[in-house]
Design goal:
This protein is mainly alpha-helical and 88 residues long. It has one domain. The chain has 4 helices and 2 strands; from the N terminus they run ββαααα. It is flat and about 45 Å long. The N terminus is likely disordered.
């Protein structure tokens, strides 16, 4: 069963199915950059497991599109930076 709730899809069997392994790797890299491991505490990437992300997206399916948009922006930023650093 699917339906619209605040811009998200309700009732997805597995909300992670719409994020590729690459998307999840980028999300982990961004999380790790924002909150690195320090003083014996784990990084955000260490905490951001598939199960936790699945739980959050099941509870808040409206976050899936903003996450996708952020991943597209991060991917674009990486491509732009790479092009600037590595001339053709």
């Amino acid at each position: 069963m699917t339906g619209d709730r605040a811009g998200g899809t309700v009732g997805l069997a597995d909300p992670l199915a719409s994020l590729s392994a690459g998307d999840r790797a980028i999300l982990s890299a961004v999380a790790n950059r924002l909150i690195p491991a320090a003083h014996g505490m784990p990084s955000a990437a260490d905490i951001l497991t598939d199960d936790r992300l699945r739980f959050v997206l099941a509870a808040r399916p409206d976050l899936l599109e903003p996450i996708r948009a952020a991943l597209r922006a991060a991917d674009h930023m990486v491509e732009t930076r790479f092009e600037q650093e590595v001339p053709a």
